[in-house]
Write a structure and sequence with these properties.
With 272 residues, the chain is α/β, with parallel strands linked by helices. The chain is 45% helix and 21% strand.
């Protein structure tokens, strides 16, 4: 599988140059203190990892439960399980860092909670339908972000403990309905949705960190961001998430999704 990833890396990085300008601009603005040589090293490592993620995405569509669990190990799952024992739903918050597809497919098999993955709908309906069927084959429920309110409300009313998986590092579509803060020294908009649901239902928010132990092997570690969201000041949870994510990316920057246009929107002047 990773022989194919090596080929993909050469094609994508050297021949096609997939989004190199975006990646280089993001790295230059995020790490001005590093030399050009240091940033190019991060860049090459990133594209190697991106090739791994691409082949792992295809593998994940057909992988068996033992294979996924072997590649995606939960280090301290008891942090999440104790809330199930209390009959309480949780929000699992992370980002497009390392491999996130294994978590989507294995969410319902890895935890006692009913797993719900929240994501953006794809434009290609046929492809989206096929990928959703593969992602949900082991019980995970995948919900479009446009429908998540109805789904969460349904399970909350019926007292079904759920683990709501959210990746909150994508660029929000509406800058006026976002939380603005500094991220790598720049004004950056973040989704407010995770904190909204946490505060509305008082669901504990747990950050899950994915570390690449070696090629094809990941470890997932959980840490509590907020146990009682309704007692928190507004925006405290999302701000804590941003700081946790930035610290993780700075430690191993090659594993974040640098080729997406994270800073494509400017902060409107009427936002304080």
């Amino acid at each position: 599988m990773y022989l194919l990833a090596d080929i993909v890396y050469v094609v994508v990085y050297y021949l096609v140059g997939y989004r190199k300008k975006v990646t280089r601009a993001n790295l230059a603005a995020s790490f001005p203190e590093k030399t050009e040589r240091e940033r190019r090293t991060i860049e090459r490592r990133y594209y190697r990892h991106l090739a791994d993620i691409a082949v792992e995405f295809v593998h994940n569509l057909f992988a068996t439960p033992p294979s996924i669990k072997r590649r995606y190990r939960m280090v301290n799952r008891q942090v999440v399980d104790r809330y199930y024992e209390q009959g309480q739903s949780v929000i699992l918050l992370s980002a497009h860092y390392n491999n996130w597809e294994y978590m989507v497919s294995s969410l319902n098999m890895q935890f006692l909670h009913h797993g719900i993955g929240v994501g953006k709908p794809l434009d290609d309906k046929l492809t989206a339908s096929y990928i959703t069927r593969r992602r949900t084959r082991y019980g995970t429920e995948v919900v479009d972000q446009t429908d998540v309110r109805r789904v969460v409300d349904f399970y909350d009313r019926h007292r079904v403990p759920c683990a709501l998986m959210m990746l909150a590092d994508q660029s929000p579509s509406n800058p006026h309905k976002s939380y603005w803060t500094t991220f790598f020294g720049r004004d950056t908009a973040f989704l407010y949705g995770p904190e909204y649901f946490a505060r509305k239902y008082n669901y504990p928010v747990i950050y899950y960190r994915v570390d690449k132990v070696r090629r094809g092997r990941y470890e997932v570690t959980f840490s509590l961001l907020s146990e009682h969201p309704q007692q928190e000041p507004q925006y405290a949870i999302v701000e804590r998430y941003v700081r946790t994510l930035e610290e993780q990316i700075r430690q191993r920057p090659e594993y974040w999704l640098w080729s997406h246009r994270r800073w494509k929107r400017k902060k409107p002047e009427d936002i304080k």
